[in-house]
Each structure stands twice: as structure tokens, then as C-alpha cells.
Amino acid sequence: MPVPTAETSRIGTVGNMSEQTAALPDSGTPDPAPELVAALRATLDGRWATSRDVVRERIQAHGITPQVGLSLADYRARVLGEMREMVAAGFPAAGFRTDHGGTGDTGGAVTAIETLGYGDLSLMVKAGVQWGLFGGAIENLGTARHHEKYIRGIIDLEVLGCFAMTETGHGSNVQELETTAVYVPETGEFEIHTPTGSARKDYIGGAGQHARYASVFAQLVTAGPGEEPVSRGVHCFVVPIRDESGADLPGVSTSDCGYKGGLPGVDNGRIVFDRVRVPRENLLNRYGDVAPDGTYSSPIESDNRRFFTMLGTLIRGRVTVGAAAGATGRLGLALAVKYALVRRQFDGPDDAGELLLLDYRTHQRRLLIPVARAYAFALAQNELVAELHAIQESEDADPAAVRELEGKAAAIKAGHTRLASDAISAAREACGGAGYLAENRLPLLRGDIDVFTTFEGDNLVLTQLVAKELLTAYADDVRGLSAIGWVRFVAGAARDVALEKTAARQVVQTLRDDSDADPEESELTSRGTQLRLLRNREAHLLRTAAARMRRAGDDDADPLEVFTSAQDHLIKVGEAHIERIVLEAFLDAIDKVGDPAAKELLFAVCDLFVYSAIENDMGWFLMHRQLSVERAKAVRRGVNELCADLRPYAETLVDAFGVPPVALDVPMLDPSNSVAAPPDRG
Amino acid sequence: MPVPTAETSRIGTVGNMSEQTAALPDSGTPDPAPELVAALRATLDGRWATSRDVVRERIQAHGITPQVGLSLADYRARVLGEMREMVAAGFPAAGFRTDHGGTGDTGGAVTAIETLGYGDLSLMVKAGVQWGLFGGAIENLGTARHHEKYIRGIIDLEVLGCFAMTETGHGSNVQELETTAVYVPETGEFEIHTPTGSARKDYIGGAGQHARYASVFAQLVTAGPGEEPVSRGVHCFVVPIRDESGADLPGVSTSDCGYKGGLPGVDNGRIVFDRVRVPRENLLNRYGDVAPDGTYSSPIESDNRRFFTMLGTLIRGRVTVGAAAGATGRLGLALAVKYALVRRQFDGPDDAGELLLLDYRTHQRRLLIPVARAYAFALAQNELVAELHAIQESEDADPAAVRELEGKAAAIKAGHTRLASDAISAAREACGGAGYLAENRLPLLRGDIDVFTTFEGDNLVLTQLVAKELLTAYADDVRGLSAIGWVRFVAGAARDVALEKTAARQVVQTLRDDSDADPEESELTSRGTQLRLLRNREAHLLRTAAARMRRAGDDDADPLEVFTSAQDHLIKVGEAHIERIVLEAFLDAIDKVGDPAAKELLFAVCDLFVYSAIENDMGWFLMHRQLSVERAKAVRRGVNELCADLRPYAETLVDAFGVPPVALDVPMLDPSNSVAAPPDRG
Predict the structure, then answer these.
(1) Residues of chain B with pLDDT > 70: what percent?
(2) Of B408, B374, B372, B505, which is closest to residue B6 (Cα–Cα)?
(3) Do B176 and A347 touch (CB under 8 A)?
(4) CATH assignment of B161-302?
(5) Do B44-159 and B161-302 show the same overall fold?
(6) Predicted confidence (pLDDT) per residue in B490-529, tens digit
(7) In chain B, N or C: fewer CB atoms in 10 Å?
(8) Strands B252-256 and B268-273
(9) Is B425 in Cβ contact with A425 (below 8 Å)?
């Protein structure tokens, strides 16, 4: 079989079904071919395949699955117990630097936590809070004195902590947190205080029960000798909150958030501080310090830049959350696809007995489109993890690269968690009554995944952040242009300027160079055409958003109205950006695949990702004349045909996720238990 | 203020913001005007307002809300206890005919159960199963002997029952159920039997614990003297399943479905029958009977028509499920809208402190569009309930009217439950971390509502059913046409033939007569234009679906391929039909509103419903040249402007839902508890 190239998939011209069927041979058997599964899985597993396998084995051996019917107390204890066993197995060390007692394998650490998404998200979140967020704050915002004092204990769970950033009235707007940390030079202490009800720390994982320490984000207020006290912006402080017996320390009032939509093994809670004193040394002082006399100092002059630099060091949490959500989304899809391959319903028109659910086009659409998106996002996520790893390994990371990574982390987090949540809801519905039973896990996954769309950055806020970053880059490039120059620029003279920055991949570059033809005259199956459609959409949206934003500077413009009226436009910019970078990462990953059959199948999956993305935004493409009506109809047909082409490979595609068998061991997938073959086929 | 007419709303031409703002005066105060709320509420409450109020008062007085942290056993006991109190208050009588001991107020009964959707869906479902499904089967499929023996006990809960239709391998495909009921003339008994694993009765509400009786749907097999036994299709039998102590009766094996995605107060379970004998008299014999000697008789000759007639009598369940889902969807929207009016986030560009969430356009879009849809569906639901009431009141309902009602019930159920589920998910996300806490109810509502999209008819199956009904009606009208005649017909000679049938409303007729102009030349704000856009979409989809279906009859066509390839087309037909009939019902309801301010506001809500529906399907409208690009852009702008116009009325709109205060009494809506006003506005 010839190796397909990046330019076009071997799937035939859309609209010609016979050619298509020839391109992707019918698998002819319901059993997935092991070699093909292995090749796909190697691609999905990527660089940290070993980390994945270690966690898969742990999930399988320990039966780490969402539990049913446990009390909150028992569930929390179970999860903490599992974490202690992970310590014994050396699990947390990868997340910390070698000079702090870890092994410094960021990519491995993130990938391991991601893989817990095949097990139990309660464990994933609680492990992520302890080792990623709390531990990450100490490691990245603290200095030697903190590393020496805490990191070993954080790794081995002697020091149980929580990450006290969010406040009741302030989730996404961290810069406006109300909690104060006022320096008291007389005693050399900070006074941590909750001034209002809305300043209460809220939804904090670990604060409900287990955490003894909190990394508290608060407005640092201090004065040098003879100065008036002044706020230096948000900083982070280590604050002990409970004693050895678990009782609140003086001045600290914790309470329990109780039952939630899911994640029953995570003890979310609230903390209110009533003028709690901590030593000056408890300030995590890497980016800002207070001398004994109250003098403030920082290596970063600008309060704003310091704040974003500090937040930037915590990027790993956002990367991890997107990754783990993706894993759970894949698990949900695997459950539903496998059910659709055992469950029958309604006779087919040829009287050959009831059809398998997955033989219905509507069922193919609602499961195979998210499967295609899951492939695209999984591979983009892998690329992001590798970039995070590289930056955290380097001694002196380029600030521009850090900033680009932050934008990409926001984009992938928003897109991947949205996909996971939607995919699991679709999977639940696709399994009907069986999908609603806790024993079949889908409702538990649905409850657990739900909050991923709004924590670690609300997806809408993150999507706007992505758009704003793009606009800023755009404006930088045209700074200094005259008004007429700006207008010309906007009119298309340099339409791709902002986009160029993030695309350094060879394969994408080559495709892009080949893709200057009119989309109407080139094949929709051409990678270059597909890439150009998504790039042009993003560039067009960005250009017009920039033009609108520019009006905000006009004298007679009401800034609130300009801002408000552009908000949904910005969301669309962000969403278009997300799909474009995911496609590029997908193409880059496919380019590296050696196995020809796997490559061919991945190209078909990529086609479905692109076609369905375009179909989903068809109104935009038509309204902005990026597609003709005829082309649009071909896209719609193409989605259906790709679903039909991929139908025989559905089990192969989900088997390649490498979900541990225990996660799929549910009653609805046990044919002997419930589902009979039709009489004439039995 | 002049009373607006149906032809155009007084909201100005879309695209001209100043005109719009003039049309809907800014309410100027955050407090909803009580008269406006009352007028809107009267419209929404409709004919059975009294039934609603009785249930509202009960919810308020008894604190009927989703509970947190109860064991399954305690929750079930609580719900059953509440049902016993409802008996004491005379609640169930409305659902039964006067000659059976009820009061025969179908509309009141359905509306009362709907209103439980503002309280606790566990109670709604359990009450619906006992009095609606189980009681309804006995009343509608049984005859005097059953009515006398059971109905009184069903009303007062002496006879606790369940509705054993669904099987593990057969949910939506009732006609292919496997459970058998073989008549044994020697003893004058039926032998009820579960022949395979997939024939197990599954997900049956009440079968897990409380039900003593089941109405069991099974294939009736019997033989007259000297005949071979033959299957007469699905019939319903009363089968005792538990003794007084709650133990399974001999031959009956029940088991418990345990935890589910929600509805913890409903004891869903499974039943397996091992050759269980029941007396011949336990056949509910209204539509088919077996004589002592085994001779089968029925007033309906055709097995197929008998089956659908029997199912048709059970339509009330489907109507009720859509109604209750709608109520819970409104509750979820009320919670999220009210939170968006107390919670602030991020400074506005004018430095006037943090903005309320609902001041953000993205937040307006994600909440106000579902609010508009909730109005539309609530009023369409009311119309459906009134039609059900009329048919159940009439002695001899016209079969065509019954069939039309069934189609409409399927359509509204599918659309209303989809809306409710999506709206609650959007509401949860719109409340961020607070929305994920059980104490704020949204995750409980999300878990409870989820299954409504797939029970009482899977929404995808129902939507196809709607489309098939339309196609059948379409084909009936052209029966007898030659091939050429069919082609001509399809080409547009009588495009609206199938649509005409369901539109008898005066206002809609008038609007339709006025709406023959080219959509491009008439105002988008014109009701006639809006109606025509939705009608033309449906007619176009129906016409093209008919043409595809016709190809299934060609000699060289593969029927499976024709069927499969048309399936997503059929879904689109059904969806387009749903939105069109909902719009017509909405317009009809608005036409009857006397209060001018309420009428004006409702027209704006209707505009948002239509504009957002078109925006959501923009690709189709553009692809099929039903809208020009310029028009399409005006629609998109229009959605945003309507959101801005309705923003000051958001609280008015949700207050008019008449949600009992106890349902809104959640911590996140208590400002003193959690959310501070910004310092400069406090």
C-alpha cells in the first residue's frame, strides 16, 4: 500500500461514494486489527507513552474507577488512600525539579495525571491540586527556603495543601481578589484577612477537609520606612490552616462545599481568614519580596507584568486540566461506541433483523464526529505538553515563547474541555436508559467533567483571552502605520501577519505555500485547501475584530458599547483560532506516522474533523463567501460519507485510546447479561 | 401605549439600534414591574392556572425541592410519603374519569404534574408513573372489570404499580418486545415469560422497590379451538409482582437499577418473569380480548393499527414529560438569570466597577436565547395540553385528530426536553463554581433532566417519527398521481399541502395570506416574513425528503442505503417542523394577550426566538438561498440587539415563570452571604 502524503488523503473525491469506499477498504470484520490499533495508539500515546502505561496499569490493578454509593467521607478517604499508594510508587516525583527532590519530568508528570482521566477524575483533581497547583505554587513562586521546607513533604503527602486563589465574588478576575496580606513590620508578619463576604476563598479543593496548608493569593500591602502602606498587587503566601487533628487554626474558618455535580472524592471547601498572622518568610518571594522593615522589592517593575508572570508559572494546571478532560472524553466515547456495536434497535428496511445502533447515520454523526475531534485535540494536546516540557526544562525561557504557550494553553484547555463535556453528554444520550445508570459510568463521567468547562479558567473567558492575545500581536505589527496605512493593512495587504507567528511546522508551511489557489477551484480533500479555509476564517475574523476595536479609540465611541458589541466577535476569533491550531497540530502529528494504514485512517479522521468543523460553522463560511453554495453542499455530503467510511473502523479508533479494560467493564457492555442478537442472526 | 398588532412587533427595524431602544423602553429599574410580571404570568399559566397555583403552594409549603445527601432508601421514602400527602389533598383525581372515581380534568392533571417540575422531578416522575402511566394503562387499555378493581386503589395508593414496557434490548422499538404472554386454555391463564436476557424489563420506575403490580407489555400468543398458537402482537397485562411484605412473588425476579444520573427518589428496577401465570381477566382487553377457549377478538382488525391505537391512548405520558421538563428548564434559567443579576466580574471599560454578568453580551446570549425559547415552547405546550384535554373529553375522537395530536406530542416532547436539558447545562456553566455546588441546585436539575431527552421516546426517534408522519401525509395527498404528476407536484405546484393540515389558527392564517412577498423584500421583523421563513424551510426539506424516499422504491436502489442516507435529512425535517409549529402557537398565544406592555414584550421575545432559530441554522438558509448574505448578517446583528433590548427585562421575564420562592432559595442568590457590591457602588 503506498504511503499517503500530506497533500491529500487517499479518501476519494467527496461526492463520489464508490471512490471513497475504495480508498478506505472495508475492514470486513468486527474485530479491530491489532497492528492498526497498536500503530494508532503509539501515535496518540506519543512521547510519554511510558507514563501513560504506568498509570494504565495502576488503574487496572487498583480498580481506579468512579465509585457509586460511597459517602463523601468514604470517597474522600479512598482517594487520599490511593494518593498515598501513588507516593509509595514514586508517582509525584516527576512533577518536581531534581534539585528539589523530584525527577523534573514535566511532560511525564502532566501525561500521568492526564491518564488518570481514564480512571477517576476525583483522584486526578485531588492529585492535581496537591502536586500540581499547591506544589507548583511553592516550587514556582517560592525560593530556596520554601523548597527546602515544603517540597519533600508535598511529594510524600506529609504536607497536605490546597490552592486558595478563587474567591466567592472573584473567579476569573484574579487580579481583583479582595483578600489582603498586610505586612506588620513590628512583628515581621503578614496579616491575612478576608474583608468581605465576596472575599471568601471558595470551591478550594482540599480546603473542605484534608489540607493543612493553603497557598493563599492575596493583595500584598506594605510600606517601607516612612512610607504610606500601598498595595503591591496579588502575591501568594503559605498559610497553615489546620492543626494535626484537622481542627481549624485560630482565625481560620473553613467550611465544606458538600455535594457537587460530581467529583465526590474532592473535598472542596471555603476559607475565611480573620486577621491571621504568618511570618514574613511565608511570602512566596520569587517575584516580589518584603524586607523586614517593610520595603517592597521585585525583579519586575510593573505590577501588571509581575502579576501575569506569576500566573504564567502556574500554567501547568491549565494544561493538565485540558489533558485529563480529553482522556475522560475519550473514555466516554469508547463506552458509547462499544455499546453501539452490541445494541440493536429497529429492523432495517431489508428485513435482516434489527440494526446495530452504529449502523444508523444519526448515531454515526453523534459519536464519530466527536471521535474525530478527540483525535485532533489529543494530538494537539500532546504537542502543547511537549512545549510546556521544553519551556520548563530551559533555564531561561524566551518571554515571547512563554506568552505564546500561555495563549495556546488557554486555547487548548477551552477547546478540549468543551469537546469532552459535549462528547460525554452525547455518549450518555446515545446509550439511552443504559447510559443513565450509574453502573454504566456515563452519568458519573458527565457529572465529573461538567466543571472542567468553567474551572482553571472559564472557557468563555479563556477564549476571549486567546482573541485578545491575537489582537495585541496584530496591533504590534501595525503600530506606526498611518490611518490610511491601517486601513490598507486591514483591507488585506498583510492579512496573515498575526497568524505567521505560531506556525513553524515544516509540513504546515509546505501545505500553506501550496494553498494560494482559490478555494473554489481546489479540492476540498486537499490539506492545503482545508488549512486555508480555517486560516482564512481566523484571519478574516481577526481583521474585522481589529477594525471594530480600533473604533473604541474614537472620540465619540462609547467604550462599553464597543466592548460589549464586539464580545461575541472575539469569541468567534478565539474559537476559529483553536480549530486552526488544532488542525495544524493534527497534520503535523500525522506527518510523523510511519505505518501506512494508520496514516491513511488518520487522514480520514482528519477529514471528518475538518468537514464537520466547517459544517458546524457553515453560516459563517457562506455569509463571508469563503465557500460557494455548491461547496457547502459537498461539505455536508462529505461529513455523512466520512461517517460511513469510518464506521467499520469505529472500534479500532476507540481501542487505540488505550482505555484500561477495567474502565470499560460495565454491565451494558456484557452481551451475555443483557443484549441478544436478533433471532435470525443469533 | 398603542396595542401592537400581530403583523410586526413594535421593536424597530433591526439594524437601527436607536429605533429599537425607543420601541422597548428601558425599564430603568432593576425591580420588575409587578403588573407586567402578572400579565406575562397569566399568559404563561394559561387555562389551568389554578392547577399550577395549587401545586406551587404545595411546593412552597412542603419544601418540595431536590434533596442533597439522602440515601436512595430515604429519598424514595420521602417521595412516596409526599405522594401519600398528595392523595389526602385530592391531587390525583383529576387524572381519572368521573365514572372511575376521578374528576376527569386531563388538562388540570397534566398541568399539575408539569408544575412539579418547579419542585422535584423525582416526585414528578414517580407521580407520573403511578397515576399517569400505570393508572393510564389500566384506564385506557382496560375495561370495566379493571376500572372497578384497580382505579380507586391506584388513586389512593392502595395499589402501587409500575409501567413495564421497556426491555433491556428494546426501548424505542416497542413493537418488537420479546416478553411473551401465552394463553393456556386449560387453566384460563396467561403465562408471562421473559425468554432472553434482552427481554428483561428494564429501567422501570417503581419496579426497584415500591410497586406491587406491573402493567406488562408482552406479545400475546393464543389459539382458538383447533388452531395453531399465533402471536397477536403487543398487549398489556396486569401482573402482581410483589406481596404485601415487598417480596417478589413466585416466578418474578425484580432487581434494583441503583444509582442513576439523577432522579434518586425514583426506584427504577428490572423484572424477569419465569412463566408467571395470571388469570385471563388480567389482560387489559379494550382493544383485544381472548375468550376462555383461546379465541382472539379485537375491534381493530389490523395488528399494526391496533398496536398504534393502543399506544396512542398512552399519549398523556409523553405530553406530561415534555411539560415537566419545560418547567424545570424555566427553573434553571431563573436561577442563572438571577445569579447574573447579583454577581459581578471584571471591570467594565469605563472604570465604573465590575459589571454584572448579565451585562456581558456572551452571557446575554447564553441565557436570554433559551429564555426566549422557553416562552415559545411553554405556550406551544399549553396549546398541546388543551388539545389533549379536548380529545380525552370527547366521546368519539376523530382518528385523524388523534393522529395529529400524537405527532404534535412527539414534536413538542422532543423539542421541549432538548431545550430544557441544554438550558440547564448553559445555566450551570453561566454560574461557574457556584453553579457546580449541589446547594445551588443546578447540578441536581442537570442530573434529573438529562434522561428526559431519551425516555418516553428517544428524541431522535421521535423527531424521525414526526418527519415520517409528515411524509405520509404528503404521500397520501399525491397518491394516484402519475410519475410525471409527482415530479410536477414535487417541483412546487402544491408545496404546502402537508403543512396546511395543522394550521387552523386565525392569526396565523391571516399572516400567511399576507406573506407571499419575496422574503428579501419584506421586513425581517414582519411576522409574515418570519413565519414564511420557517414554513418554507420545512416545506423545502419535506419536499426534498419525499423525493429521496421515492427513490427507495426504484428497482436498483438499495433500500438500506436510501434509508440510511436520508436519516439526517429526516431529522432536519422534524426539527424544522417543531420550530414552525412552536412559532405558530407562540403567535397565536400572543394574539390573545390583552395587556399592551406584556404584548410588546412578548413580541420582542418572539423576535429573539425566531432570529436565534434562523441564526442557529444559518448555513441551511444560505445554502438553500432562503436568505441573502445581507439578510443573514442582519439576523446575526438582530440577535445581539434583541438580547440588549431584553436585558432590562430579564428579571421580569423569569419572574413571570412563577417559580415558587423556595425553589429559588439557594445560597448563591443570597447577596448578604456571598457577593459584595463593588466598593464604588456599594
Answers:
(1) 84
(2) B505
(3) yes
(4) 2.40.110.10
(5) no
(6) 333 233 434 444 445 666 666 665 555 555 556 888 899 9
(7) C
(8) antiparallel
(9) yes
Please determine, for residue B617, whether its predicted confidence score (pLDDT) is greater than 70: yes
Which fold would CATH assign to domain B44-159? Butyryl-Coa Dehydrogenase, subunit A; domain 1 (1.10.540)
Backbone angles phi, psi at A533, to 5 degrees: -60, -45
Alpha helices for B341-441 (secondary structure H) = 361-393, 399-430, 432-436
How close, in Å, is residue B521 to chain A by CA atoms? 19
The three-class DSSP label of residue B137 is: helix
User: Alpha-carbon distance A286 to A357, whole Å?
Assistant: 57
Q: Does B553 touch chain A (CB under 8 A)?
A: no
Instruction: Count CB pairs under 8 A between chains A and B.
Output: 253
Q: What CATH architecture does domain A163-303 belong to? A: Beta Barrel (2.40)
Does A453 lie at the interface with B, CB-CB under 8 angstroms?
A: yes
Overall average pLDDT of the A656-666 stretch: 98
Question: Is the pLDDT confidence value at B366 over 50?
Answer: yes
The partner residue sitting opposite A571, judged by closest CB among B171, B362, B675, is B362
* B90 CB-side CA count, 13 A: 9
B555 pLDDT tier (thresholds 50, 70, 90): low
Asked if residue A12 has pLDDT above 70, the reply is no
**H or E element in which residue A592 lies:** none
Q: Does B633 touch chain A (CB under 8 A)?
A: yes
With cut-offs at 50, 70 and 90, classify the pLDDT of residue A482.
very low
> Is residue A92 scored above 90 in pLDDT?
yes
Q: Which of A178, A345, A627, A640 to mutate to test the interface with B (most CBs of B within 10 A)?
A: A345
Q: What whole-number percentage of chain A has pLDDT above 70?
A: 84
- Per-residue pLDDT tens for B322-358? 999 999 999 999 999 999 999 887 655 555 567 899 9
**Minimal CA separation from A88 to chain B, in Å:** 33
Q: Does A98 touch chain B (CB under 8 A)?
A: no
Residue B671 to chain A, least CA–CA distance (Å): 9
State the Cα–Cα distance between residues A483 and A126, nearest whole angstrom. Answer: 53
Interface contact B680, partner A, CB < 8 A: no
Q: Which run of H or E residues covers position A268?
A: strand A268-273
What single-letter DSSP state applies at residue A167?
B
Chain B 108-167, residues with CB within 8 Å of chain A CB atoms: 166
DSSP string, A253-267: EEEE---BSS-TTS-
The pLDDT of residue A519 is: 53
Across all residues in chain A, what is the average pLDDT?
87
CATH 1.20.140.10 fits A459-661, yes or no: yes
- The three-state secondary structure class of A159 is coil
Residues in chain B with CB shorter than 8 Å from the CB of A428 are 261, 450
Q: What is the pLDDT of residues B642-665, one digit of tens each?
A: 999 999 999 999 999 999 999 999
Q: Are A210 and A291 in contact (CB under 8 A)?
A: no
**Are A289 and A243 a contacting pair, CB within 8 Å?**
no
Distance CA A513, CA B663 (A): 60
Residues from chain A that touch B259, judged by Cβ atoms under 8 A, are 68-69, 437-439
Cell triple for B670 = 443570597
Q: In chain B, which residue's Cα lies nearest the Cα of A617?
A: B619
Provide the β-strand partners of residue A193.
A180
Write down the domain spans for chain A: 163-303, 459-661
List the single best residue of A642, A669, A674, A680 to mutate versus B (max B Cβ within 10 A).
A674
End-to-end, the C-alpha distance of chain B in Å comes to 36
Distance between CA atoms of A108 and A102, rounded to whole angstroms?
12
d(CA A377, CA A107): 17
pLDDT interval class at B105 (50, 70, 90):
very high
